[in-house]
Amino acid sequence: MQQDAHEFLNYLLNTIADILQEERKQEKQNGRLPNGSIDNENNNSTPDSTWVHEIFQGTLTNETRCLTCETVSSKDEDFLDLSVDVEQNTSITHCLRGFSNTETLCSEYKYYCEECRSKQEAHKRMKVKKLPMILALHLKRFKYMDQLHRYTKLSYRVVFPLELRLFNTSGDATNPDRMYDLVAVVVHCGSGPNRGHYIAIVKSHDFWLLFDDDIVEVSC
Hints:
Elements: H1 5-29, H2 51-56, E1 58-66, E2 72-79, E3 82-85, E4 90-91, H3 92-99, E5 103-105, E6 111-113, E7 118-120, E8 122-130, E9 137-140, E10 142-145, E11 150-153, E12 158-159, E13 163-165, E14 169-174, E15 179-181, E16 184-189, E17 197-204, E18 207-212, E19 215-219
Parallel strand pairs: 3-9, 4-12, 8-14
Antiparallel strand pairs: 1-2, 1-8, 5-8, 6-7, 10-11, 13-15, 16-17, 17-18, 18-19
């Protein structure tokens, strides 16, 4: 399968963050105290936050409600981008709504409830707890089709607004009313996941620029 732009974005951001964290770690090690020990603050095993995290990182909260005792448990998970499923004739808003739809855990997928001390049916839902400064959305257009035994591209039309406000936020979300302005789109050109190439459309002041390999032109 062709290496896609989403994989590259994740690789780039994570690699930059790793390099910055390693540099900061080396700086701390070089700042040892006279007796050869390191102060408690510098001995923190938690990786330092970098500008990559400050700009792109948000937090999801995974809420699970036991349908027997009604106990709600939550688990936070950091993200650098949100990957959402696409459907035919849909919109970004609809995709995000599907991302946060309530899922019922039943049969062999029952949830182990700590209060009940047994597996129970439950409702599971993902919500955004911390909104990132810059929101990167990934539309999952490459899907594995069981009947074809291969990946295929979903060339569905997806409507996206120039302004976007997330509604699928948790009750304790920070900046829940943050408005996002569309500034760039990466588009895969090709009929399938194993061929084609990518172009980028980027907003610069009041113009949209089309980047196609080494060709840059104003987009209509």
